[in-house]
């Protein structure tokens, strides 16, 4: 059975690493935009199994292009089309918080499961649903944890203290701190707006004179990390770093975090950028082989 990886310009580098790990050819999907911005997608070739690789940050146009590429792959003879979206969008809105709001997770999850035969992602941002299969129903939906890769990024000097900036980060904080025997502190967070959060860190005084590493699943505006850094600096932390699976932060958000004393940010390569330090390819390749998808 032949298999190929198809990737878009924005994910060619990471897809190339996956191709090397799986010893599979990687081809680029061509996208042309008409004057009204409608996309024309062209795939160079198809195969029995087509793996489409694309992270879904900045998701709206990427989703449409993915669906078009999946359709072209099937038209070209693909029997199985697998989506690898290391960062999966639209998982946060899993209920209508206010009257009239769309439940995005249900809509996008249903859309993806009707166009793909399997989906793989890394540390999806799930809140009130326990498993990825609830969000992506009806097809194999594989959720991987980047914690082992992120742990390997940590320089263990000075016995750092690991900080989780909200209660949901406890799972990543503990997965990273426990194997290394590091102490943890978990903050409580209240989100006041897209770019405004309020944090308290119980027992923050334990950070005095310590090197601290903040661990989260994702960095978006960077306000969560900046607020945590402010409290840790006030408590006397000597240096502040951050590690996250997904870093969606834009250059001005990275500058904002640096201005708040975060000396180093490291993330996986789910989104290519200056913080990407850990390649997900070996993890994804292992899972695809384990699940018999390639
Ligand atoms: C929230 O639940 C997540 O774990 C992150 O803490 C959050 O998405 C970070 O967002 P921002 O960087 O915009 O504060």
From TrEMBL:
<dbReference type="GO" id="GO:0006164">
    <property type="term" value="P:purine nucleotide biosynthetic process"/>
</dbReference>
<protein>
    <submittedName>
        <fullName>Putative ribose-phosphate pyrophosphokinase</fullName>
        <ecNumber>2.7.6.1</ecNumber>
    </submittedName>
</protein>
<dbReference type="Pfam" id="PF13793">
    <property type="entry name" value="Pribosyltran_N"/>
</dbReference>
<dbReference type="InterPro" id="IPR005946">
    <property type="entry name" value="Rib-P_diPkinase"/>
</dbReference>
<dbReference type="Pfam" id="PF00156">
    <property type="entry name" value="Pribosyltran"/>
</dbReference>
<dbReference type="GO" id="GO:0002189">
    <property type="term" value="C:ribose phosphate diphosphokinase complex"/>
</dbReference>
<feature type="domain" description="Phosphoribosyltransferase">
    <location>
        <begin position="156"/>
        <end position="246"/>
    </location>
</feature>
<dbReference type="InterPro" id="IPR000836">
    <property type="entry name" value="PRTase_dom"/>
</dbReference>
<dbReference type="GO" id="GO:0005737">
    <property type="term" value="C:cytoplasm"/>
</dbReference>
<comment type="similarity">
    <text>Belongs to the ribose-phosphate pyrophosphokinase family.</text>
</comment>
<dbReference type="GO" id="GO:0006015">
    <property type="term" value="P:5-phosphoribose 1-diphosphate biosynthetic process"/>
</dbReference>
<keyword id="KW-0808">Transferase</keyword>
<dbReference type="GO" id="GO:0000287">
    <property type="term" value="F:magnesium ion binding"/>
</dbReference>
<dbReference type="GO" id="GO:0004749">
    <property type="term" value="F:ribose phosphate diphosphokinase activity"/>
</dbReference>
<keyword id="KW-0545">Nucleotide biosynthesis</keyword>
<feature type="domain" description="Ribose-phosphate pyrophosphokinase N-terminal">
    <location>
        <begin position="5"/>
        <end position="113"/>
    </location>
</feature>
<dbReference type="InterPro" id="IPR029057">
    <property type="entry name" value="PRTase-like"/>
</dbReference>
<dbReference type="GO" id="GO:0016301">
    <property type="term" value="F:kinase activity"/>
</dbReference>
<keyword id="KW-0418">Kinase</keyword>
<dbReference type="InterPro" id="IPR029099">
    <property type="entry name" value="Pribosyltran_N"/>
</dbReference>
């Amino acid at each position: 059975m032949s298999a190929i990886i198809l990737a878009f310009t924005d994910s060619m580098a990471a897809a190339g690493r996956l191709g090397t790990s799986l010893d599979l050819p990687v081809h680029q999907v061509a996208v042309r935009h008409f004057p009204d911005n409608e996309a024309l997608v062209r795939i160079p070739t198809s195969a029995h199994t087509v793996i489409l690789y694309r992270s879904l940050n900045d998701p709206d146009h990427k989703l449409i292009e993915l669906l078009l590429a999946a359709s072209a792959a099937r038209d070209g003879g693909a029997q199985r089309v697998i989506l690898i979206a290391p960062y999966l969008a639209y998982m946060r809105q899993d209920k209508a918080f206010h009257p009239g709001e769309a439940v995005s997770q249900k809509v996008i999850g249903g859309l993806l499961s009707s166009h793909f035969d399997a989906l793989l992602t890394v540390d999806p941002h799930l809140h009130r649903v326990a498993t990825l299969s609830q969000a992506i129903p009806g097809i194999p939906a594989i959720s991987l944890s980047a914690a082992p890769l992120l742990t390997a990024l940590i320089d263990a000097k000075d016995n750092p203290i690991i900080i989780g900036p909200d209660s949901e980060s406890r799972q990543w904080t503990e997965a990273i701190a426990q194997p290394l025997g590091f102490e943890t502190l978990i903050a409580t967070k209240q989100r006041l707006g897209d770019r405004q959060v309020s944090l308290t860190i119980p027992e923050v005084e334990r950070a005095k004179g310590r090197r601290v590493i903040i661990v989260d699943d994702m960095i978006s505006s960077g306000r969560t990390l900046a607020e945590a850094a402010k409290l840790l600096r006030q408590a006397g932390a000597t240096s502040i770093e951050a590690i996250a699976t997904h870093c969606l932060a834009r250059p001005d958000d990275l500058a904002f975090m640096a201005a708040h004393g975060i000396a180093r940010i490291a993330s996986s390569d789910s989104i290519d950028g200056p913080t990407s330090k850990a390649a997900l390819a070996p993890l994804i390749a292992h899972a695809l082989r384990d699940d018999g998808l390639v």
